[in-house]
Specification:
- The chain is α+β, with helices and mostly antiparallel strands and 179 residues long.
- It has helices at 2-10, 27-38, 55-66, 83-94, 111-122, 139-150, 167-178, and strands at 15-16, 23-24, 43-44, 51-52, 71-72, 79-80, 99-100, 107-108, 127-128, 135-136, 155-156, 163-164.
- The strands form six sheets. Strands 1-2 form a two-stranded antiparallel ribbon. Strands 3-4 form a two-stranded antiparallel ribbon.
- It starts with a helix and ends with a helix.
- 2% of the residues are buried.
Length: 179
């Protein structure tokens, strides 16, 4: 296994993108990359309708709907759906802050938090909902919003069983049981 991994790292990158010059060791990776430039998106999510260039990206996206989180942090136990997200999370434990705001100098461990912060300065809304067109300043807000389209209600009442799409919904509901 180690030899095959080393071959991947030492393999010549002889397939070049004519548009941006990025190099790949496998033609299939170049072909997938080119779809980023052409905008071709042949893989559509059956739950929310979002389209993707690569089948693998659609599979990763589906974890939003299934809630699958099979990668865990060894330090705090938090679960993630992707290894890349875990790697970003680890910066919280190490204290590494690689992302610095040019406007105010504030620094961040996670690129996602940095991007959200920069959007506060610019007011830019970079995430949009394909089904309804609503825009959001973060992916977290979009993912939360998507529950209205996918009818996901992960917050269930332990007393009566009623389910809600948001924490605020369950909090408000719980008041009827305490009155």
């Amino acid at each position: 296994l180690m030899n095959s991994q080393m071959k991947n790292h030492t393999r010549d990158k002889s397939f070049h993108c004519d548009i941006c010059g990025k190099a790949f060791s496998l033609r299939v990776n170049l072909n997938g990359h080119i779809k980023n430039h052409t905008g071709e998106k042949n893989f559509r999510c059956g739950q929310c309708g979002k389209a993707f260039s690569l089948k693998g990206t659609l599979k990763k996206h589906m974890k939003i709907h299934t809630g699958e989180k099979n990668v865990h942090c060894a330090l705090c136990g938090k679960a993630f759906s992707r290894k890349g997200t875990l790697n970003s999370h680890m910066k919280i434990h190490t204290g590494e802050k690689s992302f610095c705001c040019d406007v105010c100098g504030k620094s961040f461990s996670l690129k996602s938090n940095f991007n959200k912060h920069v959007n506060l300065h610019t007011g830019e809304k970079c995430s949009w909902c394909d089904p309804c067109g609503k825009t959001f300043t973060s992916m977290a807000q979009l993912n939360h919003h998507m529950r209205i389209h996918t009818v996901q209600k992960p917050f269930g009442c332990g007393i009566c069983g009623t389910s809600f799409s948001s924490k605020q919904g369950i909090k408000t509901h719980m008041k009827i049981h305490t009155e």
